[in-house]
Design goal:
The complex is a heterodimer of chains A (125) and B (180). Helices cover 81% and strands 0% of the residues of chain A. Chain A is mainly α and 125 residues long. The longest helix of chain A has 38 residues. The radius of gyration of chain A is 20 Å and the shape is elongated. Chain B is mostly helical and 180 residues long. Helices cover 66% and strands 11% of the residues of chain B. In chain B, a hairpin with a 2-residue loop joins strand 2 and strand 3. In chain B, helix 1 crosses helix 2. The chains are: A mainly alpha (125), B mainly alpha (180). At the A-B interface, helix 1, helix 2, helix 3 and helix 4 of A face helix 3, strand 1, helix 4, strand 2 and strand 3 of B.
Chain lengths: 125, 180
């Protein structure tokens, strides 16, 4: 039982780390600031969920009885709270950073023939 | 009139209960001393800033509960979208660069309350290939990383969010307001 739980948690953590790697590669390879924000902003949601879920599962490895091991449940709840806060703040921070970039006149790279409605509308104003 | 006076106090109690729940989970001490400290601090915070949560205090608790259930369903769906978004990103990160066609598109939304807009903006950012850039009034400017992602902005997400907060619940509230 203990071994199964540890194996599951290791698999979760490794998958999470793999997604983190993808985010890092995207961060380096994408062409401009805004595209890189995609990698930074999304890459850390699923990956941190998986890693922290792995931690939470690992906490169960010496869970025997509810009356004796209930503090473990509190630890798991705290870990899940971390996930909740990351999910609430990470997208907001991404939007705020992109907005700050725009205000600072960082020009986005727009593919040929594609729209940049934000610039269109700002010119009108 | 009487009903309107009593509902806000329920919300204040709910606010206190939520704070205290968080206190108990985060502290992990169940002796009298720590619990008393918790009650004091939670009461203080409730007194100072209980108006931070629950904007509309006239809506009945039953409707809130319904919203909570729907919100949970939505979160489940969103979680699946997040998985898709990360797989999508992984493919782009390791794939050839010509798959990227960055563009900024406009999206008009019909949602009204700030919380709904916040939820929609966050959901766009969490789903494949799109990041909310800027919100001006009810116009969203969204940075899409390629054509596929831009085509995905078809308003399905907005419908799902609108469904959480509206439907029969709002009719009932309007009916109750007409009665009073």
């Amino acid at each position: 039982m203990t071994v199964t739980i540890i194996v599951i948690s290791v698999i979760l953590i490794l998958t999470g780390i793999f997604f983190f790697l993808g985010a890092a590669v995207g961060l380096l390879r994408f062409p401009d600031f805004y595209a890189r924000m995609h990698a930074a902003g999304k890459g850390d949601t699923l990956s941190s969920l998986l890693v922290i879920l792995g931690f939470a599962v690992y906490q169960l490895h010496d869970f025997h009885s509810l009356s004796h091991d209930w503090p473990t449940l509190l630890v798991i709840l705290k870990l899940l709270a971390v996930v909740l806060f990351i999910f609430l703040t990470s997208p907001t921070a991404t939007s705020a950073l992109m907005d700050a970039g725009w205000e600072d006149n960082v020009k986005p790279i727009i593919a040929e023939g594609r729209s940049n409605h934000l610039e269109d509308d700002c010119d009108d104003a | 009139m009487e009903k309107r006076k009593t509902t806000p106090s329920i919300y204040t109690a709910l606010f206190f209960a939520l704070l205290f729940l968080v206190w108990v989970v985060f502290s992990g001490f169940f002796d009298l001393f720590h619990l008393t400290l918790g009650v004091i601090s939670c009461a203080l915070i409730t007194w100072i800033s209980s108006d931070l949560l629950f904007e509309d205090r006239t809506s009945p608790l039953r409707r809130r509960l319904l919203q909570l259930v729907r919100m949970t369903q939505y979160t489940g769906w969103l979680l699946w979208q997040i998985v898709l978004a990360n797989v999508f990103l992984l493919r782009l990160a390791f794939g050839p660069r010509d798959r990227l066609q960055p563009q900024i598109v406009r999206y008009e939304c019909g949602l009204k309350s700030d919380f709904e807009k916040f939820l929609l903006a966050n959901s766009f950012t969490l789903t494949p290939g799109t990041v909310t850039f800027k919100i001006l009034g009810s116009t969203y400017y969204i940075h899409a990383i390629n054509d596929e992602a831009a085509a995905g902005l078809d308003g399905e997400m907005e419908r799902r969010i609108a469904r959480i907060f509206a439907a029969e619940g709002s009719d009932r509230r309007e009916g109750a307001a007409a009665e009073t």
